[in-house]
Design brief:
By secondary structure, the chain is of the alpha+beta class. It has a single domain, classed as Streptococcus thermophilus LMG 18311 protein like. Helices cover about 15% and strands about 25% of the residues. It has a four-stranded antiparallel sheet with strand order 1-2-3-4, with helices on one face. The radius of gyration is 15 Å and the shape is globular. The two termini are about 30 Å apart.
Length: about 120
């Protein structure tokens, strides 16, 4: 379990270029489910957190795209979260970017299933 990167989509050239020697860190260009959009993903696993940011060039990623990336970078049974921090700690470096996080030293609590849906 835990973050695992799809090497076939790793950006290997340019400013964000890397190779497998840096492990679960790097930039990735992943086709969306419809094949018409490129999802730009930056992955990292430092500071006791696993993290991916997901963006597109012209719009915010959809829920289905985020779900697709979650299942590509983590196991289907891993729990990851999107965080809405206090306004005083809010940082927005990219207008069309969403983030997924997973702490390494604690388990994310989940609400009871009856609160999630029927």
């Amino acid at each position: 379990m835990g973050l695992h990167v799809p090497e076939r989509y790793r950006v290997r050239r340019g400013r964000m270029g890397s190779d497998a020697s840096i492990g679960n860190n790097g930039a990735f260009e992943v086709p969306s489910l419809d094949g018409n959009t490129r999802l730009f993903v930056i992955a990292s696993d430092g500071g006791d957190w696993e993290h991916v940011s997901v963006s597109t060039r012209f719009r915010t990623p959809t829920w289905d795209e985020m779900h697709h990336i979650k299942n590509m970078f983590w196991d289907k049974e891993d729990t990851v979260i999107q965080i809405h921090p206090p306004q005083s700690q809010y940082i927005n470096n990219c207008e069309n970017c969403l983030h997924l996080w997973r702490p390494l030293k604690s388990k994310i609590p989940l609400p009871p299933t009856w609160m999630i849906g029927v």
